[in-house]
Amino acid sequence: KATMKSLRFISAEAFVSNAELARRSLGSVAHNLFPLLFKASYLLEQGEVIHDLVENWPLVDFNMGKLLGKTVDYQEDLSHRTCSVCMESCLTGLRDYVLNHPSPYMKRLKVVDLTGIKDVEVQFCECKKPMGRWARTQLLAKLCLELLVHLQPMQCNASVSEISIDVLIDLFVTERNYELVVQALLRKCSCPLKIHCVAFRADNLALQKFFYVIKLTDPSLLRKLEVVHNVRLEMEHLEILFNSIRFPLLMSLTLPARTFNVRRLTAADELMLTAIGEKMSEMTQLTELSMAFSILTGRIRKLLSPLKTPLKVLDVSNCSLNHADMAYLANSLHSNHLEVLDLSGHNIPDLYPSTFFKLLSHSSSVLRSLTLEECNIQDTHVNMLILALSPCQKLQEFKFLGNPLSSEALKHLFLFFCELPMLKNVEFPVPRDCYPVGITYPIDDANLCSFDHQKYESVAEELKLILLQANREGVKASTPLFGSYDAAVEETNNELGAYLMKSFKETLEKFTNSLKEMS
């Protein structure tokens, strides 16, 4: 659907579409028109014009999310376009803003905010080449170091030494860009572009390096911390992290798989768990917590009850929760505030149907997203599920991949989905009757694709028809077999793949050497 443009925006597009003329004329453009011209240039992917607009930016702040978001002149939100041409032009323009002005009076820019950019699966830009969070981290660090090299001969120049611009960014650090980021952060004091890390994601990084770089980011300003996949952070390391660094503004915390394993806890470990809960209680802004694929049996209360602020987002998928954990969640302060909840990997219908009911009824007035993947929900449980979901009138997203449900059960569910007024996204499983008889759940990766694709397509069409007939064609229904799209994983999958291969090779070599020693 085409978005209406004002006459001002149409004029701005016409102006920037002739790049050469636009660049020559920028000196005579009114300052208040720069945001309008920036959005028009971004839409048309006029990289050179974008560069020159940023290089000559006349305003105090440059907030990318606001500049590209919905505006009076053009309602379409472009903040999910991470077009490589546009992003690079922006950042190099910022570097040249520092370098290329003779007069200090022109320089008003104080804050550049790059945090409003959203990484999405489908890029609508012409070049179809996104610049993800990892690449933005890499480029900004590189440009800061380039600036320092350029500025060395100009140290006496007062106009340059007076420039200090806070650059707010979500950093993403892996082994491959670690050295560059560390160098840029170490020399932050002498660089006119001051990197301020608002969110930090670490993957494929040795623990020692993670601890070092996180201290350099100024954790007192950090709002979001994601430590994922190939960072071997375990319970004792987490305690050290929380004891050595304070995160007063942290709102969102994601921990890697197997951070906690409570199966063989000693008395000292129990004390450590208590200490971690108490340290988390000092994070008074914390409202989002993900602890997926840890073993937390019977210990949810110990970790969550000290928290001062109710959680809005909780991911405890595949955490081996027992009845006591679910009872705590259902009766806790958090239950009335949960907007996003992931309980995947738990046998909900058999283990704790009544506490699950209670939990959903408490969170029903605010719950926006619910994920129940591989929860052993079968045809006999469909009516129970509908009953549990009925009060959740604000639900926008429901994911239930990997459950052994038939085509008929799915149709029954989809008829109910039409009654959820806010629902926008459904991820449903391949029907059980599309797989060979005797398939066991959860289905392993080797057999995940061995279903009757033609039959699946036919069922999927019927399900979409149910939505269409209820005038709910706006609901997106899909079956992403290997999970939802993750922009960060997608961007760094080559590096992660190489890391996994290296780990596998090392394990194999150790095993071979052991065999040789035995023989």
TrEMBL record:
<dbReference type="GO" id="GO:0005737">
    <property type="term" value="C:cytoplasm"/>
</dbReference>
<keyword id="KW-0677">Repeat</keyword>
<protein>
    <recommendedName>
        <fullName>Leucine-rich repeat-containing protein 14B</fullName>
    </recommendedName>
</protein>
<dbReference type="InterPro" id="IPR050694">
    <property type="entry name" value="LRRC14/PRAME"/>
</dbReference>
<keyword id="KW-0433">Leucine-rich repeat</keyword>
<dbReference type="InterPro" id="IPR032675">
    <property type="entry name" value="LRR_dom_sf"/>
</dbReference>
<comment type="similarity">
    <text>Belongs to the PRAME family. LRRC14 subfamily.</text>
</comment>
